[in-house]
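Follow-up to my earlier ticket, as requested here are the two runs.
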Amino acid sequence: MNKYELALVIGAKLDDDARAAVVEKAKGYIERFGGKVGETEEWGKRKLAYEIQKQNEAYYFFVQFEADPECPNELEKSMRIMDNVLRYLIVRKDENDTFSVSPEKTEEPAAEAPAAEEAPKAEEAPKAEENAAE
């Protein structure tokens, strides 16, 4: 059995009970196709990068599950016809994948050090061009 993650983007116009019903229906599909549902994360309401079906905001859910390789194909067939799901994505996770994404943990990479090392090299380049021109 492989490990997978299902990302669901559900319309923001639904009430709490309807959103929970959509997530439970997706979990039911996973179990129907022979999968075992694991952890479910709710990221809450987020602004969309672009408008989908005249909506600018949606709720994000992530469902971890284990299943046979045939399950994601069958799950996608069922997810396509669900009315309140704006977008979905099923991703296979590596066996030794310990990386977990959470909305609170975002870090900016330090870009200062490499830029300082490249500055002297940039000054040397015009000298080489001047010698070639002579």
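Run two:
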Amino acid sequence: MSKDDETQESAPASPPDVPAQGNARREDRGTHEHAPPGNRVPECLTRVAPVTVPPTRIQVSPEVLADNFQALLESVSRTEAFGILELGRFRFGLRRRMGRELLALYAGLWNLALRRSFPHDYEEIFRTWLLREKARLPARRRREWEKRILQYVDSLRQYGDADFSEPSRHITGLLEADEARSRRISFGMALYVRRIYTYFFDHLL
């Protein structure tokens, strides 16, 4: 018995779903007819960029991301939020107070977006912005300003980005409105908060 015969007898039977050997050899022959010698990768394939997983580490400095968030804040109009909250232009005191709440909310939403996109670096990025902006405030306002922001950060971290009804109810509760009005405002604020979060998330860089 020849060595080839021994190899054929010892080879396992092909599974039922594998095509006949003759067809497979014909297909292989058609494939390898155009293969480069020495099993080298064709030149056209060497120029194709590899598929990579989106990075979860920042490629720019935290200062750049902090600057970008500051630009995002300036692009967000609080007029829409005041309209949803039904705060007329002459309610100066309440609008000023709600403006501070909205700023803290925006910072919390940005922190949540950073946490999802840059889980390894979001704390450093957020701290860079927080410390820089706090230094620009009068000393007597810094502690209250930071405390309010961190409250929103903790609340949003607890509930995540699946449901923004809780921060919306919190802001609505500051208005001391009746039940029917509170429900209407809270629903509108939940939609508004989601839009702002999506805007921040889509423009982190």
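The only thing I checked on run two: Residues 62-202 form one domain. Let me know what else you need.
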